[in-house]
Design brief:
heterodimer, A: alpha+beta, PmbA/TldD fold, 2 domains, 5-stranded mixed barrel, 23% helix, 38% strand, B: alpha+beta, 7-stranded mixed beta sheet, 9 helices, globular
Chain lengths: 443, 543
């Protein structure tokens, strides 16, 4: 069984800790259950269901620690896993940066659980694939897609008296539609806690329409262009920026926030004043766990406020050393948006390029957060406020810091995953002088 | 069909390796290093095969696997994490009603295996209703009871943790002493104990070992706010602890930098890394334009991986990966034409699962096919793809190429990239001689940033070290270099390849593919090669 209630978790974890002979012990319990279906070439290729429950135990003697995991829950197994962590801790050298387990914490309430999402059946998943394939055939497209849904349970307890429990559900759908002649490609993504918000036909129709519209793409000269990034196209770049808000690397002088002469650029205005990026585990459209695996509490944090980096994330060791609050790295991401629809953004664009999706984003220079990547699955030329034609895909070399400094307009937000897979609410945005460096023949 | 769990093994440490974890980390590997007796595995496998046949399967295979990993990580002179993981279970794949079905269980008893077999048949029968392309499985003779082991001389899992910790601390001390400000280092060990049995009559026992020592050093100039890094020039290898012996025959003293072949000196490399990071910081920023590139094997492996390995995966070509990794420019019509110039006539790119020391080397793949070597591009012409038993009929072949792999007992096996390598030239040529013939060029050592489009036309790569070549001589180090090209243009610009003496492998532990995603380890060999007139951009920006 994957699922557990708070009371069941407390009972299991109390038993685990009862075996501990170390100076301190932390036990995390994870459960997941769900299923998926994958299709390609307008037919189902694989489908499956899974469920598992895992226990992770960490023991320490002073500053020596060891970690072990097990997925068997009889008393002998529980004792065995605790003993293994103790053996490993004895073998480990002392780590001066080891931090003792946390005392009990206060957590916010989040509503990440939806019964209907947990109850999704194999038949429902088959129907998602069938609807999507039908949408493809109706528009002479070939569909390849993936639908996955799951429920997650997590609990933790430590020898300092901390106990935490959380459960959540999630569904994720992606579909790529290619025209039968392979000259056009479109994409759609839907990510929700609540499956009631999901419409497979609508998402598939949009992907198929993008595919049809992206045919007969014309080449344009690479260079600097005004671009409109749909939320999914912007997400990877914004996520990468957020992953780099690490206090220690900034303090050590090896981050884009390193400052000549020492210190960091936290507090300096680096981006357009409309740029505000925060995280909030209780956001109604993006609820997540209110606590991190080490027991630290997540709450709303403004990372970038009106274009100014305000908050960085810390390991407990580094925060202790610096004498500041040990703020954990965010587990969701929200960028404040505007009121403009995508159509509004296009209408107000004299000349520019609309990007549906970005792909294969990789860091080029950590000093400036320069990233490279490509457009994919629907790239369009805009002239005098209307979409004129599809353009061939382009490679970009752009830093999210420079990009957000060149912000021209913000649209409404949507929930997306981006290339780095962090659930995010990201607005569509219009950016000046976005740098494309070469053309791609890829469709 | 499981959801991947990820464990960040080094807390919030900068540059921490995120590792996939399937199973239970254990305190030590006592007992787990001794393979389960083959008689026991055969009995369990037969229970699965019998159950599958009894339920109506026309084919079945059973994979019993024990997967061990060990990760040790350090930050400067502190060992920050030691994690041992172990995962044990069985995966059963069947064909029923012309359709694949798969189920996996960690209940490795005769009853547990039989139940999973029944579940796999039920899934196959349920999915058969939607089937429009019944499975066509290439015939495969049974091998009876056979075994294979990575030819290691010292099992890295048996090396005491203290010896490993001491090595990482020595690496850190050497780099710090030579001027580095920060050092992150790690050792990553893999052992796959895999037993495969099928209704074809094969019972294959394999013991596969891999090792990856790695580090990164960072140099910071507080005055300017600039920093520079240099990553290890090691390669992940299909070897044991002997890879770390630092034997002289593994050392390759190139024109400007020391790299390594089948034996690695991690401490020397750390010393060189700190020195070279300092040189990088003072290097000249490249002037954008066309250059002749001389690419060391420590760099070229990744370009081969992205621009040759991936586009020639037959499932990508056919569209099965369209929603994730993408499709391929190397379509079947180009292959059928027998005249598609993938590269210049010098270019022969071969696939294999047999090279000693490579990550892909096994005796048999994960559907019981003996491994081999075959050409993908021969004298510049596209001649073949990478295909497994249910695909080779598309290529008009009757025998699988033996490149089927699953990353765990609980994952379903599918086509994965074999080692794909550039054949060395037969005419004698050294890197120094090659450089002497270049008027305006850049010599690149080590891999770094990489990006390529979803059909594998347009790519961009950077590296660890860039050296300017002018008038046939290395004149200094460059920085801010990235090259962009198109796969076919690039391989057709290949004008020289060094000989076998310079042949080395690079590779990755983490080639990703599929939904749900699976990883795979793969090597790519080459000798130093020259590519003329490649577009280089300058990547420097100001914030």
């Amino acid at each position: 069984m994957s699922a557990f209630t708070a009371a069941e978790a407390r009972a299991i974890l109390t038993r685990v800790l009862s075996y501990s002979q170390a100076d301190a012990c932390v036990a995390n319990l994870f459960g997941n259950a769900g299923g998926n279906i994958r299709y390609a070439r307008n037919t189902v290729s694989t489908a499956g269901a899974t469920g598992d429950r895992t226990l992770v135990v960490q023991s320490n003697y002073g500053k020596r620690s060891g970690t072990a995991t097990i997925n068997e829950f009889d008393d002998a197994s529980l004792e065995r896993v605790v003993r293994r962590t103790e053996e490993l801790a004895r073998l480990a050298p002392e780590d001066p940066e080891f931090m003792e387990p946390l005392a009990p914490q206060q957590y916010v309430t989040t509503n990440a659980w939806v019964d209907a999402t947990e109850a999704i059946t194999p038949e429902f998943r088959t129907e998602v694939a069938a609807v999507s394939i039908a949408a493809a055939k109706a528009r002479e497209c070939v569909a390849a897609g993936f639908f996955t849904n799951g429920a997650q349970w997590q609990a933790m307890m430590n020898s300092k008296g901390l106990f935490a429990y959380h459960r959540g559900t999630q569904m994720n759908f992606t579909v790529t539609m290619r025209t039968a002649d392979s000259t056009g490609s479109g994409y759609a993504l839907r990510d929700y806690n609540d499956v009631a918000r999901f419409d497979a036909a609508e998402a598939s129709r949009i992907a198929a329409e993008k595919a049809a519209a992206s045919r007969e793409a014309r080449a344009i000269e690479p260079g600097k262009y005004t671009v409109i990034l749909e939320p999914e196209a912007a997400a990877g770049l914004i996520q990468f920026l957020t992953f780099n808000l690490n206090a220690r690397t900034a303090d050590e002088g090896r981050s884009f926030l390193a400052k000549a002469g020492g210190g960091t650029r936290v507090g300096e205005k680096l981006m357009d004043e409309r740029v505000t990026i925060y995280s909030d585990p209780a956001h109604p459209d993006l609820p997540t766990s209110p606590w991190a695996a080490d027991g630290r509490a997540y709450r709303r944090r403004n990372w970038i406020e009106n274009g100014v980096p305000r908050q960085l994330f810390y390991s407990r060791y580094w925060a202790d050393k610096q004498g500041v609050e040990a703020v954990p790295a965010p587990n969701n991401l929200i960028m404040a948006g505007g009121e403009a629809s995508l159509e509004d953004l296009v209408r107000d664009t004299p000349r520019g390029i609309l990007l549906t999706r970005t792909w294969y984003i990789r860091p080029v220079d950590p000093q400036t957060l320069l990233l490279t990547g490509l457009t994919r699955d629907g790239t369009f030329y805009i002239e005098n406020g209307t979409i004129k034609h599809a353009v061939k895909n382009l490679r970009f070399n752009e830093s999210p810091v420079i990009m957000l400094n060149n912000l021209d307009a913000l649209g409404t937000v949507a929930r997306v995953n981006g290339e780095f897979g962090l659930s995010s609410l990201i607005p569509a945005m219009r950016i000046r002088d976005f740098t494309f460096t070469s053309l791609s023949d890829a469709v | 069909m499981e959801r991947r769990e990820f464990l960040q093994v080094s807390g919030a440490a900068a540059g921490a390796l995120i590792i996939p974890v399937w199973g239970r980390p254990v305190g030590d590997f006592a007992g787990s290093l001794t393979p389960i007796p083959t008689a026991d595995k055969k009995r369990l496998a037969d229970a699965g095969l019998t159950a599958a046949r009894g339920r109506g399967a026309t084919y079945a295979d059973v994979r019993i696997g024990r997967y061990l990993n060990q990760f040790i990580q350090s930050r400067e002179t502190k060992i920050q994490n030691i994690t041992n993981t172990e995962s044990y279970g069985v995966g059963i794949r069947v064909i029923a009603g012309g359709t694949w079905g798969f189920a996996a269980t960690n209940d490795v008893t005769e009853d547990g295996v039989a139940r999973a077999a029944a579940q796999a048949v039920a899934i196959a029968k349920a999915n058969a209703r939607l089937q429009v392309e019944p499975v066509q499985l290439a015939p495969q003779r049974g091998y009876g009871e056979v075994s294979w082991r990575t030819p290691i001389t010292k099992n890295a899992f048996e090396v005491p943790i203290s010896e490993k910790a001491d090595l990482l601390l020595a690496v850190a001390n050497e780099a710090l002493k030579t001027g580095a400000n920060f050092v992150n280092a790690g050792l990553f060990l893999v052992n796959e104990q895999k037993y495969f049995a099928s209704t074809d009559g094969s019972y294959i026992d394999q013991d596969v070992h891999r090792i990856w020592p790695n580090f990164g050093v960072t140099l910071v100039n507080q005055e300017t706010g600039k920093f520079e890094t240099r990553q290890a020039l090691s390669a992940p290898m299909g070897m044991g602890w002997e890879y770390l012996a630092g034997r002289p025959e593994g050392r390759v003293a190139g024109p400007t930098a020391v790299t390594y072949a089948m034996s690695y000196d991690m401490i020397e490399d750390a010393r060189n890394a700190a020195r070279e990071a300092k040189e990088k910081m003072a290097a000249k920023s490249v002037e954008a334009g066309k250059y002749d590139l001389v690419l060391d094997p420590s760099h070229l492996w990744l370009t081969i991986h992205e621009s040759v390995g991936h586009p020639l995966e037959l499932d990508r070509v056919l569209g099965y990966e369209a929603n994730y990794a993408g499709t391929s420019f190397a379509t079947l019509d180009k292959w059928r034409s027998k005249s598609f110039n993938y590269g210049s006539p010098l270019v022969t790119l071969f696939a294999d699962k047999t090279q000693p020391g490579s990550l892909g080397a096994v005796g048999y793949d994960d559907e019981g096919v003996k491994t081999k070597r075959w050409d993908l591009v021969k004298d510049g012409i596209l001649v073949n793809y990478q295909a497994i038993r249910d695909q080779v009929h598309i290529l008009g072949e009757s025998e699988s190429q033996g490149c089927c792999y699953a990353d765990n007992w609980s994952s379903i096996q599918f086509q994965r990239m074999p080692n794909v390598s550039l054949a060395p030239a037969t005419a004698a040529l050294t890197p120094a001689e090659m450089i002497a013939g270049v008027d305006k060029g850049i010599y690149i050592v080590g891999d770094s940033s990489y990006s390529i489009d979803q059909q594998r036309y347009n790519f961009q790569f950077t590296g660890q070290l860039f050296f300017e070549i002018a008038g046939g001589k290395i004149v200094g180090m460059l920085r801010d270099v990235a090259y962009q090209s198109n796969t076919q243009e690039f391989w057709n610009s290949c004008v020289q390849i060094c000989d076998q003496r310079d042949y080395r492998m690079g590779g990755s532990f983490f080639d990703g593919k599929g939904q749900p995603g699976q990883i795979s380890a793969v090597s790519h060999g080459s000798s130093t090669a020259r590519f003329n007139g490649v577009n280089v951009i300058n990547t420097a920006r100001r914030l």
